[in-house]
Amino acid sequence: MAISLSVVLLLAIILVVLLRGGNIKAGPAVVAVLFGFFLASTGMADDIQRFLNSIAETLNSIQF
Fold this sequence. Notes:
- The chain is mainly alpha-helical and about 60 residues long.
- About 80% of the residues lie in helices and about 0% in strands.
């Protein structure tokens, strides 16, 4: 839960920066948000979540 919440917050910040910087217009941003919303209700949502969790675990296990 903490990982998914922080990813949502990070993506929201990136979206706001892109909108304010003029790199992305409001229309494509809305389409991207709606695509993500509807993608989350498909059968692929579990696979995507597992993939993101494995990336987070891999990054967490890296030691400097």
